[in-house]
Design goal:
It is built from eight helices and two strands, in the order H-H-H-H-H-H-H-E-E-H. With about 180 residues, the chain is mainly alpha-helical. Strands 1-2 form a two-stranded antiparallel ribbon.
Length: about 180
């Protein structure tokens, strides 16, 4: 996938999050709550994606001096979207899993509409924060990722785009 600049990142983020939300919206109670072979249910995956996007709201809202002080600046160019996805897949293949703050509890069907609304709102908040960043800043500042280590802001956005695609693919296979 060719994604690089802010307009492409925003378009891809909209596309992938909206596709996930559309898919989840169509699930009935049984499908939403189904947990096959110890895997997360669709509801749990939705909760997981919300847990994953929320910290970005904080990271992208921090002043640049705070980002630099807390996490440093990059000493390398940002990976491409495909390179970042490959690194993530490699980590998963090596046994990488979500860490405690990102592991969802059981999610009942009655929470579905509220979680969908919350996720859509989180996406919009993130897009508003992306729009305030310069292209250079996306490649200059870094954030910690629990599985990938320190990644640039651009790479974190690439991850967020792929993360939706990854979990939608899992749901498509599962249901």
């Amino acid at each position: 996938m060719q994604i690089h600049g802010k307009p492409q990142i925003i378009a891809a983020l909209n596309e992938k999050v909206d596709a996930f939300i559309k898919y989840i919206s169509l699930l009935n109670k049984e499908q939403f709550e189904a947990s096959l072979n110890g895997k997360w249910s669709a509801g749990q995956i939705l909760d997981h994606l919300i847990r994953a996007i929320k910290p970005l709201q904080i990271g992208f809202a921090l002043p640049k001096f705070a980002l630099s002080f807390l996490f440093g600046k990059t000493n390398r160019p940002s990976r491409t979207y495909d390179e970042l996805v490959m690194k993530y897949k490699t980590k998963l293949t090596a046994g990488g899993k979500a860490s405690r703050p990102f592991i969802p509890s059981v999610v009942g069907f009655e929470k579905k509409a509220g979680l969908i609304k919350k996720y859509a709102a989180q996406k919009q908040k993130l897009i508003a924060k992306i729009e305030k960043q310069s292209e250079a800043d996306l490649d200059k500042y870094i954030l910690p990722h629990p599985l990938l280590g320190k990644v640039t802001l651009r790479e974190m956005l690439y991850f967020t785009i792929h993360h939706n695609e990854h979990h939608l693919h899992i749901l498509n296979r599962q249901l």
